[in-house]
Amino acid sequence: MAVRILEESLINKIAAGEVVERPASVIKELLENALDAGATEVRVHLRAGGRNLVRVVDDGSGMDRTDALMSLERHATSKIRCDDDLFRVATLGFRGEAIPSIASVSKFELVTRAQGQEEGTRIVVEGGKLLAVEPAGAAAGTDISVASLFYNLPARRKFLRSVDTELGHCIEAITRELLIRPHVDLEVTHDDRLHLRCARTDEPRRRAAELLGPHGEALVPVSFARGSLRVAGLVSPVGVHRQSATNASYLYVNGRFVRDHIVRRAVSQAYAGLVPKDRYPVVVLRIEVPPQDVDVNVHPAKTEVRFVNAFELQRAVAEGLRVALQDHGIQRPVAIEARYRGTAPASEQVSLVLDAPRGLLPARAPAPPPAAPSPSPSRALDTRAPAPAASTPERPPAASLDRAAAPSPTAVVAPELAPPAPPPRPPPAVGARALLPVARFAELRVVGQLARTYILCEGGGELLIVDQHAAAERINLGKLQRDPKAALGGSQRLLTPFLVELGPARAKVLAAHADALAEPGLDLSHLGGGTIAVHGVPVPLARRDLGVLLGDIADDLLAGGPGHLAQGVLDLVLATMACHSSVRANETLDDRSMRALIDQLDDVDHAVCAHGRPVVIRMGVGELERRFHRT
Known about the structure:
CATH topology of the largest domain: Ribosomal Protein S8, Chain: A, domain 1
Structural class: alpha+beta
CATH architecture of the largest domain: 2-Layer Sandwich
Largest sheet: 8 strands, mixed
CATH superfamily of the largest domain: MutL, C-terminal domain, regulatory subdomain
Helix content: 25-40%
């Protein structure tokens, strides 16, 4: 067949297919334009889940007649002037494809008036054909209506889902854009009924509560800086997590919502051992880096980015988040993933999600900062933690989620391989965030044992339920962490090397990090091709599935750089030892054993066990009265 140039109408429809997937895509593009225009009030009107109408009204800078007409031309933008601008993008929209693409697959109307002008402009487009351009009376700002989406593409329209499904996607698109912008007043109507109202506020947590519900209300603020990197956000405390990764992480780079695996891995590393397997922390994280250090032009929908120094950024975000969590009383426990251990007894405690105690964490003094690590060279993004001044406790400034003052940033990063000395017993916990209704576990009265798995205690007029296996595991883990090298007992040499076939790429990356793996006792060599020979393993891992373990370590290295490999293997080994040396579920304990177990919890960080499950939950008198219908 002969090669020919496509018709303009077909070109526009192809472009629309890249930008406009469903009504939520239209909302995303129009909201980005409104925010770039400096809008502080946004009104979104929907009909039939956006299938019949998506209308976005803003009070931004607006456009004059010339700019309004130019906005309907493909690749017309006010945000890019030269090649260099493409690598210093500081706005949400910049490609100049959204408006013409949307107008080519809908019945489109634009009414706009620039600030300071007396007359506005109205433009009507249907299926990409310009029908009317006329003066109009209008408020300052822009009002865009997109009706009958995909009316001229029935094959595309039939793929739209039910009204409720499309409405859910629309609300999620609005949430992503305005979750970190509490200074923007928001109103959403559906079928002429008020669906969502978020007033302007200076409190990011209030906006999170309005858009994310109880999960958002439970989040705690974090803020820190590492050189040119600034991070601020709201993150899950212990006990707050979702069953699905969908809509659990809201990650932003320079104000842009992204689905970036580098940042996601950093969040996963920070929460290792703090959430159970197959659960996901709720995180609203805003990352600010110099625009030249991030490429946002790698995806038509602009939801993927690429960093100049991805591994350095991942490490800095993971370490900063971990220290920030410790400032909120969450001491990082050792993590162990279920695929490396035997099947857990069915009677083990099931983790609580949002029904965890309202007082989630004990009050703890932060651990003293260690000496700053030697900085590694960085080409553009400097993630080195500044050395703390001797005479002042101030920390570096951090980015804020809104126009209000940012929370205090965190201390410098704790070392990975050398765990700090066990913290002193925590001071009496006060306020709504206290884990216990009394100052110490020693002050609790042991009532008895339930189902040979849970220890029931009473204190401060409340009922506390302690998972005996999780508590014993946490205590044993604390003891092991005080002297991990002695606890390991060295490496067990194998009489015959264990051969693992992983493929060339995975085997090569493991061989390159053989020295780091040898620190916790994993001795291996590369036999060529994709074959790895294992000569020695840490004693607690002697009966584990080494093929799965090595494969996962290799995948982690290929995806995220060297990270803290030795620490990860060490964590796995210690957690395995703690688990297998602990009191189990379905084990009868006498009064003396229960008392001793409860008292020892005062000497460790008892928020969660090594697997991220809670150690203790509490039930107040109010909850009991509600259940007995006394209120």
